[in-house]
Amino acid sequence: MKKIVTLLVFVSAGCFGQFMDDMESYTDGQPISQDHWTDADCGGGAGCAIISTSHISRSGSMSGVIPDDGTTDAILNLGNKIFGTWAIQFSMYVPLTQEATWIIKGEVPVGTSTDVGFFYFNRDNNSPGMGSIEDVSGGPYSFSFPHDTWFSVHLLFDINAGMGAATWQVYINKEEVLPPGTDFANATGDRPTSLGGINFKSISTDNLYYLDDFCYNSEGLPQNCFLGVEEYHNHGFQLYPNPMDTKLFIANKNQLAIEQIELIDVQGRRVIVKTDEFEVIDVALLDSGVFFLRIKTEFGVITQKIVKK
Fold first, then answer.
1. For residues 265-282, average pLDDT
2. Which end of the chain has fewer CB atoms < 10 Å from its terminal CB, N or C?
3. For the chain, which domains are there?
């Protein structure tokens, strides 16, 4: 049986550290208001909190549902982070003829901090298989997703230089939507005070979706995350040297099937793309600086920061 594991890391920005949640530890049919799950000050309970369900699951027997009540206002608390590299991965299921909506909150409990990124899936139930991220720097951004099947969501946040220079990137169904280096700010350039949480909402009676297999960590995805194989706990890639000089070597310890490797600069430009011979990358001609190595595998996208001397 899968288990929920919480690794408590006490930092000044909040008490929530890393966690994994496969939704198996909750009671079927009951609201979830414990651990990292809370709500947008709507009192908890049905019609407010996410609900545990055995109706459908990505793995195991349970998931969480945002029901079609038009009122649910659940929040996944990410701990009001103001420094570091943070990554959240989870799976979604949106039935055909249904829509989904969620928002990145700048503060939990919800206060006056700026929200960044309104995620819409089949908005107003009139664009099946299409979604958008709105009120975000450089946006809106469009993407596609499948109905009636589970798909992955990856969000990666780089706050190492503080919230005033924070960036993020988004992958949905293994496809890049927001490139590395995208400012973590809304459409008018306002920034949140922290990485607060994710607000999973029901905004209408056509709003119904399921969530499962959450993983939140500070190591970069998908280390210690669910990747589509229940007992798979480490992506098994070793990158060296880092900082790199003329060559970057990639050891694929678990022999995952790699589809493509990209090296992306901080402006979001792809400076190297490889579709074969993944063991080594020639980086001799690159300028010094920070880059993001994006490895697209059979189980999802892995992104790690790399420094060039």
1. 89
2. N
3. 5-217 (2.60.120.560), 237-308 (2.60.40.1930)
